[in-house]
């Protein structure tokens, strides 16, 4: 993509490894990786799978080089943990929308969560405030929790349905366990097909 993103933030690690490992096959021009690496540097990775895929590229290696990496690192290299600061609250607007199956619905709420909270925290707060409307279920994946049901409406691979999360009309590039909404951001969960 024009901004340096290769696929999405989850595919960046493997894409960078592949492109770096095959650099000599890009004739007659070299692959310019600076823009792609700037996307990686500006992202705050939290999921172990994403970190495991992007870390080799950041040190100029690929999984093929894993056997030659020296893992004897000193614990003194780790910075001390910062002391917690008082939490500022942000307001996040959250909508759930189904215009696809069964009885259609649209519900919207506004919740307050500590600044820096994940989208999962927003969903949990909405459910705590109005459990009959904003109930949801997740399933664990190697990339973090995946929302599989909202308001009793479950995603179904046979029907090719899923819950898509959007902000400003754009699909989120991170999962609910890592995406951190901004103050007054409007997140929509839309029951969709693929």
Automatic annotation (TrEMBL):
Residues 116-188 form the Transcobalamin-like C-terminal domain. One of its GO terms (cellular component) is extracellular space. It is found in: Secreted. Cyanocob(III)alamin binds at residues 8, 53, 172, 194. One of its GO terms (molecular function) is cobalamin binding. Keywords: Cobalt, Cobalt transport, Ion transport, Secreted, Signal, Transport. Signal peptide: none annotated. GO terms for biological process: cobalamin transport; cobalt ion transport. Belongs to the eukaryotic cobalamin transport proteins family. This is IF factor. The gene is Gif.
